Structures are given as structure tokens and as C-alpha cells.
């Protein structure tokens, strides 16, 4: 099979890895998919505190000085502290729980179970487009 050359893919395509661990049997399901942009959410205070606990109190950098982005997020009440882009990326890649209505169907257990999901960027593109 001959691969076609694509300038868009060469510049903007990256790879996102998803690891989902079943809390019942411990089975880990790994999938990799291509992406051309990332959509990052602005975390609210409880989510920021959870990420800080998981990564360590000093792991999340603060924005060096107030920016237009941080002033807008403060104004609309999303967060009371300036946020660095690195913090949003940490939040994106931090473990999240799949439970209640969002349970995971485990391949090994053959049933819906609680699970934890971790995302990681395994290959970054030359140009990373981020939506906030």
C-alpha cells in the first residue's frame, strides 16, 4: 500500500492514546487515534484542586502575569486564579473516572463497570492547534 503525501497531515496530525482501566478486573484497554486539534476545557476550582492533588501541589504552573485569557475566565467565574496553558494540558491528561451514567463496557468482564481513563499525547504534530 502506497501512502499519499499530505502537507496537512504532516503539519497538523498527532496521536492521542487512551488507556481505560476496569476497576473490577484490572483489564486495560488501549486505543490510539489521530487528531488535528485539541479541545481543552477551562477547569473549575474543584477540578483544579483534584488535578493538583493527583500531580502534586507544585506541579501546576501559574500564569506568569495576568493575561486577557485569565481576566476573562476570572470575570465569568470559571476560576479565581490565572491559568497557564500547561495547566489546561495537565487537566486534559489527568485520570478521569467513568462511572454512573458514564460507565465503561469492559472487554474482559463483558459488562458495564466503573473505570478510570487516562489520555496521553504520544505524537505531537509540528503545529498544535488548541481550542479553549
Structural summary, described in words:
- Residues 1-132 form the USP domain.
- Pfam families: UCH_1.
- One of its GO terms (biological process) is protein deubiquitination.
- With 132 residues, the protein is of the alpha+beta class.
- It has one domain (7-131): Cysteine proteinases (Cathepsin B, Chain A).
- It is 26% helix and 28% strand.
- It has four helices and eight strands; from the N terminus they run H-E-E-E-H-H-H-E-E-E-E-E.
- The chain has helices at 7-12, 45-55, 68-75, 85-93, and strands at 14-22, 28-35, 38-39, 96-98, 104-105, 112-113, 115-123, 130-131.
- It is flat and about 45 Å long.
- It starts with 6 loop residues before the first helix and ends with a strand.
As a whole number of angstroms, the C-alpha radius of gyration is 18 Å
For the terminal residues, how far apart are their CA atoms?
A: 38 Å
What is the number of helical segments per DSSP (H or I, 4+ residues)? 4
Outline type = flat
Structural class of the secondary elements? alpha+beta
Order of helices and strands: HEEEHHHEEEEE
pLDDT averaged residue by residue: 84
Major sheet attributes: 4 strands, antiparallel
CATH superfamily: Cysteine proteinases
CATH topology call: Cathepsin B, Chain A
Largest beta sheet: strand ordering = 2-1-7-4
Query: Strand portion, in percent?
Result: 25-35%
Q: What's the domain count?
A: 1
CATH class: Alpha Beta
Amino acid at each position: 500500500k502506497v501512502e499519499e503525501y499530505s502537507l496537512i497531515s504532516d503539519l497538523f496530525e498527532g496521536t492521542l492514546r487512551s488507556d481505560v482501566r476496569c476497576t473490577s478486573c484490572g483489564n486495560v484497554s488501549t486505543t490510539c487515534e489521530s487528531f488535528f486539534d485539541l479541545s481543552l476545557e477551562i477547569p473549575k476550582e474543584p477540578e483544579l484542586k483534584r488535578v493538583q492533588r493527583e500531580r502534586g501541589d507544585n506541579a501546576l504552573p501559574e500564569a506568569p502575569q495576568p493575561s486577557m485569557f485569565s481576566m476573562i475566565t476570572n470575570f465569568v467565574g470559571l476560576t479565581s486564579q490565572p491559568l497557564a496553558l500547561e495547566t489546561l494540558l495537565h487537566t486534559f491528561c489527568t485520570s478521569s473516572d467513568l462511572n454512573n451514567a458514564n460507565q465503561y463496557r469492559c472487554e474482559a468482564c463483558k459488562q458495564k463497570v466503573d473505570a478510570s481513563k487516562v489520555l496521553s499525547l504520544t505524537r505531537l504534530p509540528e503545529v498544535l492547534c488548541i481550542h479553549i
